[in-house]
Amino acid sequence: MNLPAPAPDSNPLLSQTRRQFFGRCGLGLGSIALGSLLQGAHATASAGPADAFANPMAARRPRLAARAKNVIYLFMAGGPSQLELFDYKPRLVELNGQPIPASYIEGKRFAFMDSSHGTKLLGTRRRFQRHGQCGRWVSEMFPHTAGIVDDVTFVTTCATNLFNHAPAKLFMNTGSGQFGRPSMGAWVTYGLGSEAEDLPGFVVLQSGPRGPRGGAVNWGSGFLPTSFQGVPLRGTGQPILNIASPAGVSAARQRSALDAIRDLNLHRLVETGDPEIATRIAAYEMAYRMQSSAPELIDLSGESEATLRLYGVERPRPSFARNCLLARRLIERGVRFVQLYHTNWDSHGGPGENLQGDFEKICREVDQGQAALVHDLKARGLLDDTLVIWGGEFGRTPMGENRDTTGRNHHIDAFTMWFAGGGVPAGTLIGETDELGFRPAVDRCHVHDLHATLLHLLGLDHEKLTFRFQGRDFRFTDVHGDLIRKLIA
Amino acid sequence: MVRTNQGPRPIHWAFVAPRRPPLPEKTKPLTRSELEPSPARNHQAFHPIDALVLERLKHEGVKPAREADRATLLRRLALDLTGLPPAPAEIEGFLRDTGTDAYDKLVERLLSSPHFGERWGRHWLDVSRYADSNGYSIDAPRSIWPYRDWVIQAMNRDLPFDQFTVWQLAGDLVDTNSLPAGTYPFEPLIATGFHRNTQINQEGGIDPEQFRVESVLDRVNTTATAWLGITLACAQCHDHKYDPFTQRDYYRFFAFFNSTIDDGHGKSRPEGTLELPNRPGHPAHPTTTLVLRELPAPRETRVFVKGDFTRPAERVTPGLPAALSGSLPDTSSITPGGGDPARQLTRLDLARWLVGPNQPLTARVIVNRLWQEYFGRGLVETENDFGSQGTPPSHPQLLDWLACELMNPTTPAAGEAKTNLVPWSLKHLHRLIVTSATYRQSSRQRPELTSIDPANRLLARQRRLRLDAEIVRDVALAASGLLDQTVGGPSVFPPQPDGVMNLGQSHREWKASTGPDRHRRGLYTFFWRATPYPSLTVFDAADGFSSCTRRLRSNTPLQALTLLNDEAFHECARALAARLLREEPRDETRRLELAFRLCLSRQPDRAERRRLLTLLREEGKTGSASDAWTAIARVVLNLDETITRE
């Protein structure tokens, strides 16, 4: 947050501050001077992407008409098998055990080429049924999710470039396999700021046995200012690192320390005229508000039993379901971009990763929570403004992979993601894969196209949202990306 | 003229070798006596930097700012040269020294401090993408800290930058029989750790060749960024759109780096590990570090269609970008087969060319980055793009003068003898910059300039700069008296909040040290790429993934939470309180003054003193003296000024 004119002697506001400081010193400067300072700062926040001299997180109106204001991205880390969940392929079941025709795989590279990669087709053992008014195929693994299909658009023809986890996650999040690019949440908050006054604009939640591969780069800000990087928030204990005052420092003492810091910083602001000090004063006030808002956020005692049952939240255990409920609470508080990671979908067939019990377990872990989130957002009138995204960094091969059990390898040519709310059509299916589920037959939707469309739904033009770095105007979609018209209601 | 399809166009300024510009009229190269500081040593002195800055200011009708006060100068200089605030005795000594050479003596003392190398080595570690783990998904720990220590020592003994360059890029290829006297024999090899700071992908199921190529690409792009300040990476997939670099140029550059041993992608252990003699006192743990080694026979290099390594095309040999001038120094003595014009060029040739005669970019890029650290912005603002899409220099003559002075020093700064000037000495440049009146100006905002020069491009004042992440920590440790000043050694584990380590794929252990290593300087903190130390990241430390030539300076609520609540910082507040009570047992006012001296190197003014005494009264009502003074210490450690170089 910056002052419009950082001139100690010519700026009446600052002269006034100076008088107030000296006049009221010893009593603690009241909120009046700070309030007027910050008002002045708000006045300078302009529409359009953040520049270095304005409050980076001030909410901004997009240039285009926005269909969605917020995003909740349910990232299924490891690459869930579309063939066990959504992309129903009876022909693949018939051909189970047959070698895949050479034309499919000639010259193609896969992960684990030198070890467990297999070439025999693997039909699913899961039963599929049509659901909802739209008659969408969903397998028995997702009984709750089957209940939201009329609010959802499925895209079965998603395609990406990279077939190893860390690079592919990076690609899905940043549009590049190279390190150093901003993540989706960073681009969106760079473009739109955030409505949240006392929480970060981009929040990351995690569940499952481990964190996602690659760690912090997945929600990093790359070459954008770090103000835009995702802030990990934990659903239990201390929700944000260092959110609790040190042991022995009561709320009252924290406040009196903050008052003194503010007064002395104001004094220095007057001395130096440096607007960075005004930004720091505002940052400390926000930090103080976060100290009460973040614990309040994760305190679910105000949620009804019915809501907790809807999500399947069992207090006080951390879980994906709990994170889904927290995502709704974050959106309610104006947070722009919430990303949930759940591991581990990496169903190669090895220990802990088989397509039998392990797969059933992870499906149970997410099914009820994700369906409840869509139901709940809709019931509260939040779904229109909130785009829910579901998917992994890639999908799984139609061929079996040979580990302790038969699993599936990483597959980048066709996999399924789903979208709900925020300006996407309801009850729709985009794309169709070939009879083996190997390649898109129609409507291939590349990651860059998804990124372009996501920004479009938020009112941002992917060709115009740029950041100048190393002499070049960088875009989220680099030089790629076509809008997926069918994904825009 | 460069011929293009559009016809001839002038060669871009940065691709022509710099020539020493004449200094403005009435300005001669400074002599010792002309640099004698007077109480108001100011822009009147004929310092070449000042002469060139002043010329531009005069042209714009703007007067330079007055000099900052002495306490500010002392703290500024100490933080800039060593990253540590001056100790109370140093403050007292400097303020009492009314001699005309007090400032110059201070410069010399700080330049020869062992902490100088920590401060300026860290910048080079940003450029070299240093970290203590392998990155990607597994992010296993690695041992490469001997490279970090080598950088610190190289800065401390002012290893000339040309030597510094050659060893890092080709230390495995230099003739160890002709090393300068006193060189530690492993030194050139340890220095090649520069290009072992690439990540290693140990994820299962990868194609190791894909990631070997990724490492080579990273080495190419990093070399181009670090030394040449050009965006060569743009030519990986196609000819550069704006600068005269073809895709073929790119892969000829690539060929220099394409024949080193594998890094260990897809394997459980990195390759190319050098075992060093045991450190004294640590016989049980042999020290290893990652180094580059050349294969006995070179790999074939081909242009990759659209940058895709699965689509190799035309074969190329190592070669330098045709558009850049410069020449190869005589290479006859450097390798077997030298002198043969048909001989394939090596990394050693590349390294020597980078710091060789008439090469237009390296010296400019290096002096620009030093300037950037002192003034918050380079003379070329786009420090990583000297190409046609970058911003033109604000002071082109000053940039070229400094570049020439780096390569061929002729102008001693205060405290230097002309006979001792050494080409490519970085300390010479530091000395020149910090003794200039331009550097010594006040950083106060000047209302009359806010419309003319809001970004301070004219340099009509200094600029307040928030301290680097590591130094934010160092200042708190130094002020509180906790700092362990040991230089070098394996990376350490200070306390960090719970729950950081489970953000990555692998749960790595973080056992906070309870011994002296708990309070080491920030640059020694073990840096995991996937789960970096939060209080470094929150203050914009480099991420270790790609070459970082300029840190951003964000200003966020998470920084406030860190300084207010992080265990490591609260420990400093408690220790500072104890120190205040111990060193000033009787007088509250003197105690406050000591707190200010330790954190800000100055006295509190009346208003500040009263405000803090008010807080002290409030706190004293409910708590012990120790609690009340911890509150005061927290406040002072959290001030914007404490984490700012004024």
Give a quick rundown of the structure.
Chain A is α/β, with parallel strands linked by helices and 489 residues long. Chain A contains twelve helices and 17 strands.
What does this structure look like?
The complex is a heterodimer of chains A (489) and B (646). By secondary structure, chain A is of the alpha/beta class. Chain A is 32% helix and 17% strand. Chain A contains 12 helices and 17 strands. In chain A, a hairpin with a 3-residue loop joins strand 9 and strand 10 (406-411). The two termini of chain A are 37 Å apart. With 646 residues, chain B is mainly α. In chain B, the strands form 3 sheets. In chain B, strands 1-2 form a two-stranded antiparallel sheet. Chain B has a two-stranded antiparallel sheet with strand order 3-4. A two-stranded antiparallel sheet of chain B has the order 5-6. In chain B, helix 12 packs across helix 13 (396-407). The two termini of chain B are 46 Å apart. Chains A and B meet through helix 5, strand 6, helix 7 and helix 8 of A and helix 17, helix 20 and helix 21 of B.
What does the secondary structure layout of this molecule look like, with pairings?
The complex is a heterodimer of chains A (489) and B (646).
Chain A: H1 12-24, H2 31-44, E1 70-76, H3 90-94, H4 102-105, E2 128-131, E3 136-139, E4 152-159, H5 165-174, H6 184-192, E5 202-207, E6 231-232, H7 251-272, H8 275-298, H9 305-311, H10 320-332, E7 337-342, H11 357-379, E8 386-391, E9 395-402, E10 406-411, E11 415-421, E12 428-430, E13 432-433, E14 440-442, E15 445-446, H12 447-457, E16 466-469, E17 472-475
Helix pairs in contact in A: 1-2, 1-7, 7-8, 10-11
Chain B: H1 48-60, H2 70-82, H3 88-96, H4 102-111, H5 114-127, H6 145-156, H7 161-170, H8 187-191, H9 208-228, H10 247-257, E1 273-276, E2 287-290, E3 301-304, E4 312-316, H11 347-354, H12 362-375, H13 396-407, H14 426-434, E5 465-466, H15 469-480, H16 534-537, H17 557-565, H18 567-583, H19 588-600, H20 606-622, H21 625-638, E6 644-645
